[in-house]
Design brief:
Radius of gyration: 18 Å
Oligomer: single chain
Low-confidence stretches: none
Strand order of the largest sheet: 2-1-3-4-5-10
Distance between the termini: 33 Å
Bound molecules: NADP nicotinamide-adenine-dinucleotide phosphate
Mean pLDDT: 96
Largest sheet: 6 strands, parallel
Structural class: alpha/beta
CATH architecture of one domain: 3-Layer(aba) Sandwich
CATH topology of one domain: Rossmann fold
Helix content: 40-55%
Number of strands: 12
Length: 280
């Protein structure tokens, strides 16, 4: 059985289709707030899951920057609460981390062997979560995802915003001086489903393949949707934000490649499938 925290979010929206047939226990902030150590411990102890998939997080990077206590409480200590409960219950923990642990400055995509150096509080709190999991547990998978794609109606991230802009604006501005690796939430869960059968515990990067800017993603969305609205590349200074962003958060799934465990598809293919399933 897989016990899930934060199941009402973007990634959680694909759980039932990817793990159909398997037993899932889904919780979110209204049923299990991961910042409550006693409830987390009792709930996991009671359910005795084989795996705990810890999705719960404050994912609003700018809110994390403005409310550091909230960011560390949710993303670092919330993770500690789940890890301690897994330790006691003998459950394997799957912790979703982020490419945001990297600080930029590398010209090649980051691998699992590169040293994190987060550019903002969100990245720092998620990295603290990683360190806690590694310190407390022997049996864990830490899976770093890139720029998340998915969620359909719940899509409050870049892709969702751009899709809506194509219906509303005469011209779309998109940043072209920051790079990353998109990750379709459904593909992430498919990869995790395969990874957790291996017993190869440890840290993994799991993003779709390829490197791009937000501008590239916006252009691709226009192409997939057959829209004529022009997309203009702009520097990130056009959109000043509270949290600094690394110039590159691009990742390579180096350990999955070396082990031959799972191959992720190119981000353009994943984006196309996502938009077709959502909008057609
Ligand atoms: N989104 C991305 O771009 C991205 C990229 C890389 C990695 N990740 C990681 O992937 C995982 C899944 O994120 P996602 O993309 O599915 O984001 P999401 O849509 O924001 O989902 C996170 C879920 O956690 C819930 N949550 C927040 N605080 C909680 C708490 N104290 N207790 C229990 N639940 C809580 C949220 O509820 P509310 O909506 O009510 O706050 C939301 O339902 C996270 O660990 C995230 O750090 C995300």
């Amino acid at each position: 059985m897989i016990f899930v925290t934060g199941a009402n979010g973007m990634v959680g929206s694909y759980l039932e289709e990817v793990f159909s047939g398997g037993k899932l226990v889904l919780t979110d902030i209204d049923t299990l707030d991961v910042t409550d150590p006693v409830k987390v411990r009792n709930e996991i102890k009671k359910r005795k899951p084989e795996f705990v998939l810890h999705l719960a997080a404050e994912t609003d990077v700018d809110r994390c920057e403005k409310e550091a206590d909230h960011a560390y409480l949710t993303n670092a200590l919330g993770t500690q609460n789940v890890a301690l409960a897994c330790q006691e219950a003998g459950a394997v923990m799957i912790y979703i981390s982020t490419a945001g642990v990297f600080g930029g400055g590398k010209s090649e995509p980051y691998t699992e062997f590169d040293q994190p150096d987060p550019a903002n509080i969100y990245g720092r709190a998620k990295w603290e979560g990683e360190k806690i999991v590694r310190f407390l547990l022997d049996r864990y998978y830490i899976v770093r995802a890139g720029w998340m794609i998915g969620g359909r109606e719940k899509d409050k991230k870049f892709v969702g915003k751009i899709v809506r802009q194509f219906g509303e604006k005469d011209k779309i501005l998109a940043v072209n001086d920051k790079t990353g690796t998109p990750t379709y939430a459904r593909d992430l869960l498919e990869g995790i489903k395969k990874l957790i059968t291996t017993g190869y515990f440890g840290l993994y990067h799991m993003a779709n393949t390829g490197v791009c800017s937000r501008y590239d993603v916006a252009v691709e969305i226009g192409k997939i949707l057959g829209k004529k609205t022009p997309v203009e590349p702009v520097p990130s200074s056009v959109f000043p934000l509270p949290a600094p962003r690394a110039d590159s958060e691009a990742m390579r799934n180096y350990k999955l490649e070396l082990l031959g465990v799972h191959k992720m598809r190119p981000w353009q293919e994943a984006l196309s499938e996502y938009l077709k399933n959502w909008l057609q």
